[in-house]
């Protein structure tokens, strides 16, 4: 079973636009959606309307929310990430996610398609394309 860690940009985008294609993530059978309180709070801060906040609340009902405070770094040495994005990858590693789905090209783009500490980093669209190309077993 894939365990998909969703970053703040994914949560924000899903709540911001009712027609966001990445909402398909919530309809995939056999996957577990995971995020952190850190990502949830960041997404919530950036939403503008009560409807968007209510939509985020509804989406999060189907997501395992991890409360994670790092006392030590779980990140591989030599990793270059902005300080505010490090907790996202650390929480994904801590949660034993198989994938980190991030819409943050600036922070994670250099790592798209790479596994760091066992977590494959992808933009959501790449994961969805992978599922479409995957033969039914």
UniProtKB/TrEMBL annotation:
Organism of provenance: Candidatus Methylomirabilis lanthanidiphila
SUPFAM superfamilies according to UniProt: PIN domain-like
Keyword Transmembrane helix among UniProt keywords: yes
Species lineage: Bacteria, Candidatus Methylomirabilota, Candidatus Methylomirabilia, Candidatus Methylomirabilales, Candidatus Methylomirabilaceae
Membrane spanning stretches: 111-132
Keywords: Membrane, Transmembrane, Transmembrane helix
Protein's name according to its UniProt entry: PIN domain-containing protein
């Amino acid at each position: 079973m894939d365990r998909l860690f969703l970053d703040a940009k994914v949560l924000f985008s899903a709540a911001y636009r009712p027609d966001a294609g990445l909402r398909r993530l919530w309809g995939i059978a056999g996957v577990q959606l995971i995020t952190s309180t850190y990502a949830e709070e960041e997404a919530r801060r950036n939403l503008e309307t009560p409807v968007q906040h209510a939509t985020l609340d509804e989406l999060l009902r189907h997501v395992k929310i991890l409360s994670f405070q790092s006392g030590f770094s779980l990140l591989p040495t030599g990793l270059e990430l902005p300080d505010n994005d490090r907790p996202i990858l650390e929480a994904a590693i801590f949660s034993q996610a198989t994938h980190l789905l991030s819409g943050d090209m600036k922070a994670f783009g250099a790592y798209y398609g790479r596994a760091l500490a066992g977590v494959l980093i992808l933009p959501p669209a790449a994961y969805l394309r992978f599922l479409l190309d995957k033969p039914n077993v």
